[in-house]
Hints:
This protein is of the alpha+beta class.
Amino acid sequence: MRAQFxxxxxxxxxxxxAYAYEIDEFDAPWHYxxxxxxxxxxxxxxxRYVGNSFESxxxxxxxxxxxxxxxxWKNTGRQLNKASAIVIHWDGQLLGSDxxxxxxxxxxxxxxxLSSQGLKFDxxxxxxxxxxxxxxxxxxxxxxxxxxxxxxxxxxxxxxxxILCDRSYHDEHDYEDHERINLVFQYVRKNxxxxxxxxxxxxxxxxxxxxxxxxxxxxxxxxxxxxxxEYRINAACKLLIESDAAIxxxxxxxxxxxxxxxxxxxxxxxxxxxxxxxxAYQRMSYS
Length: 287
C-alpha cells in the first residue's frame, strides 16, 4: 500500500484544527497531506517514520511536519495503555496568502520552510510547550488563534530542534518508492521476531536482492539490516520497561539469534547495556 493521501477537514469555527487523539494503538498508515502538522505524543512509544527518517519515540515526542511529507507513528508490540497525542493541522494560508511575507512573521516563515524536512523539538522544550497546547482544545476562536501563533513564534526562536530527513528527499523519490517502503515497514512489523532473509523482504517489493539493497539504502540512508536491528532494539526496550523478563529471553523474542550481538547492537543504538537501560528507567519512574 502506497503512502496514502489524507483529507484534512477544517473546523468551521477555526482557521486550523487542534484536537486530542486517543486510541488503543497508533494505526494510521504511512500518509501525507498538504497541511502542516504539529504532533505532540502525550502517551505511548514505538517507532516514528518521517520521510527517510526512522527513530524511536516516546512520551513528549514533539514534531513539526511540512506539507506532503509522508509520516506515521507505529507502536512496537502489544500496548498496555492507550496511545494519545495532541495534533494540530493548518494550511499555508492560515492568515491569508501573503501573511508570511510580513516582517513580524519572518522567524515563523523560516521555521515552516525547514519543516519540509521534518523537525523534532527537544523534550525539555516540548514539556514547556505542552502547557500552551492543552488550552488550544478549549479556547474561543480568536484567543485560540493568538495562542497558536505564540506557540509557532516560540518554536521559531528555539535552537532545541533537530532536522529529521534529507533536503533532497522530496526531489529524488516519488510515491512508488513510498509504496515499496511501506510494504517493508509492514513486513518488518509482522516478522521481526523471526529470522528475516534479504530474499524474503526483497520479494515483498518484487525486486531482486541487489536492487532492493541499493533502493533501501538510497531512500532510507541506511542498509536494510541496520534498520531491522534498530527496530528490534526498540522492541527490546519496550519489553525491558514493561516486563520483568530475563534479558536473554527478550533478546530472542525480538529476533536476535546471538546474545553478544544483541548486546553490541543495544550499545550502538542506546549507548548503554540492556541492564543499565532498565535500571535507569526504573530509577526515573520511582524518583
